[in-house]
Every structure is written in structure tokens, then in C-alpha cells.
Amino acid sequence: MNTAKTKVLAALSIVAVLLSLVSNIQTAQADEYDAQINALKAQINQNQAAANQKRNEANTLQNKLDSINAQIRAAEASLNLTRTQISKTNQDIEDQNKELNRQRDILKENLRIVYKQGEITPLEIIASSKNLSDFVAQQQYFSAIKNKIEQNLIKIDQIKKELDNKKAELTSLSAQQQGQVDSIATQRSEQSSILAQTRGDEARYQQIVSDAKKQLTAAQAAQAASIAAASSNNVYGGTGGYPWANAPWPNLQADYWNFYQRQCTSYAVWRFSALHPGKPVPTWWGTIVPTNAKHFPARASVTPGFSVSSTPQVGDMAVYSAGEYGHVMIVESISGNTVRVSQYNAGWDGRYSESTWPISSLTFIH
Fold it and tell me: What is the pTM of this model?
């Protein structure tokens, strides 16, 4: 009888050792992904920051380019106004030249008449005049016409000079404005080139981020598979009474303890607090970074009334520390060397499930 009992005890010891080895192997397998996940997350953060910077630079460059385009439109409007004024001035000069020529023709005609008058002797003029007053009137008339025409010629010549000066000024202004338009256009070309390059850089960084996120998703899936391998008999269904069971997924909304809803941490602190109304989980657990499940034992060790153990009790938080985040569950029952737990997000899917875990792979908080 003693021999048989000894053999049974030896067999149980061997099984316990094998379970422990399997658990350690599974933990090691999960840990293998930590470095990969951390590196990918660092790569995502770095490249996302670079992409955001390029986006901000592009927005700034676009604003500057918009300002340059507005300057070009204003400069072109000014140039068009000057060109219109030049056209009007040219028309005015042409009109004044026509008027000058007309006045000159009038002057020539009157000078011809006056010249003919000069060929007539005063006696002949007097003889042809009705009286002396008529003679004087004729002399004054011809003299007034001559003076008036001469004044008009001087005035027209002055206007023409003013128009020529105005045309010269406008032509110089037009050249300056054209140079301004050309200079601004060069700036626009340079800014457009920089903007295109910056947007191209942003696109490249965004592509790097996208690729890294895909790799991260794959690494997380591999880690989830490794963690799932540490448990057995995983059964999905129901909500476990969790108040945020129908919250959107993925979810960045915080619960009362500042954990994201439908994460394992949110469910565990809610369920633990519900099971231990006299010992609720303090809210600071969710406000001090990092807040992952694997850090719960360290939180509990410095929280009055909480203790950490390798021996489970029903209602305990069960922490699996492998992987980047770890995993936290609630102990629902104990059977030999295993515990049956309830949990959320065991497979990175935000769902409720129950599974069986070897006690040796877990740390318990009660």
C-alpha cells in the first residue's frame, strides 16, 4: 500500500513539474514577442510624429502659398490697372496730338489770312472798311484769333508734355509691377515645389506607419495566440454583467477607474470591486502610467488592504505577466492545479469569455 502510494505521489510530482515546464515555455514564447512589439510601437510613434510634423509643415507651406497667390493676384490687378491707365494715356496723347494738329491747321489758315491782310495797305483796308471803327475791329479780330490760337497751342503742348511724362511714369511703374509679379511667381514656384516634396515626405512616413501597424497587429495576434495557448477550454458567450459590454470596439473611452472599456483591466477592476464592496480598486491604478495588466501586482503591493500571492482564492484577480501588456482575469473557481477565470479581451477582440489556467502561470491579487 505504501509502495503504491509512493508511486502515485511520484507521478503527481512529475505531472506538476511538467505543467510548470509547459507554463514556463509558454511564458517564454509569449515574451519572445515583447521586443518585436515594443520596437514596432516605437517605430510607429516615431514615424507618426514625423508624419504629423510634415503635415504641419505642409499646412504652414500651404498657408504661405495661399498668401503668395493672393499677393500675385493683387500685384497682377495693380499691373492690369497700370496697363489700362497707360492705354488711356496713349489715347489721350493721340487725342491731344489730333487737337494740336487741328489747332495748328487753324493757326495756319488764320496766319494765311493775316498774311494776305499784310499785303493790303492800311489805306486799302480803310477804303474797304465802312468806317474807322470797322477798321479797328478787323485789326482786333485778327489779333485776338492769333493770340487765342497761340495760347491753345501752348496749352496743348503743355498737356502733351504732361501726358508724355505720365506715360513714362506709368511705363516705369508697369515694369516695376511686372518685376514684382515675376518675383512673387518665382516664390510661388519654390513654395509649390517644397510643398509637393513635404507632402511626399508625409505620404512616405504615413506608409511606414501603416506598414508598422500591420506588423504590430500581426505581432499582437501572435502574442494573443501564445497567451491563449497558456489557457484551455476558452468559451465565449454572455457579458459577465459588465456594464460596458456593448461599448464600441475598439474603444478609447475610459471607465470609472480610467481604464479603456472592454479591456481586460477594465473588466477585472470592475468585477473585483463588485465582489469586494469593502475593498474597491482605487482609481489611481488607472491614472499612473503604465497601466497595463502586468503592472497590477506592483500596484497591489503598495495599496493598503491588498496582497499578492501565488495561491488563488475565488474572487481574486489573476494576472498573467507575459507579453507586452500581460492579462488580468477574475478567479471564478479552483480545481486542483487550475483555476477557472472570467475575462475580457483575451483574444484582442473585446469580448467576454471564460477559460481554464494552470495556477503556476499566474499571480493572484486578493
Answer: 0.49
- CA atoms of 83 and 67, how far apart (whole Å): 24
Q: Are residues 180 and 252 both part of a single domain?
A: no
Tell me how far apart the alpha carbons of residues 268 and 292 are, in angstroms, rounded to a whole number: 12
Query: Do 193 and 305 belong to one domain?
Result: no
> Strand 327-335 relative to strand 317-320: parallel, antiparallel, unpaired?
antiparallel
Q: Per residue in 209-225, pLDDT tens?
A: 788 778 777 767 776 77
What the block records as the C-alpha cell of 93 is 496723347
The residue segments making up the domain with residue 65 are 12-230
Nearest alpha-carbon partner for 165 in 78, 103, 89: 89
Cell of 174: 508697369
Look at residue 323 and tell me if it is in a domain. Answer: yes
Domain shared by 200 and 114, yes or no: yes
CA dist list (Å): 132 to 122, 127, 144, 229: 11, 9, 18, 141
All cell numbers assigned to 2: 505504501
Using alpha carbons, select from 194, 188, 187 the residue that is nearest to residue 59.
194
DSSP 1-51: -HHHHHHHHHHHHHHHHHHHHHHHHHHHHHHHHHHHHHHHHHHHHHHHHHH
b/e map 258-296, b = 16+ CB within 10 Å: bbbbbbbbbbbbbbbeeeeeeeebbeebbeeeebbbbbb
Residues 346/263, Cβ–Cβ less than 8 Å: no
In this structure, of 100-114, 196-210, 347-361, the range with the lowest mean pLDDT score is: 100-114
pLDDT at 33 over 70: no
Label the pairing between strands 232-236 and 352-358: antiparallel
Q: Is the dihedral of CA 135, 137, 138, 139 positive or negative?
A: positive
Contact 262, 283 (CB under 8 A): no
Q: Are residues 38 and 24 in the same domain?
A: yes
User: How many structural domains are present in the chain?
Assistant: 2
Q: Which of 223, 210, 206 is nearest to 36 (CA)?
A: 223
Cell of 194: 517644397
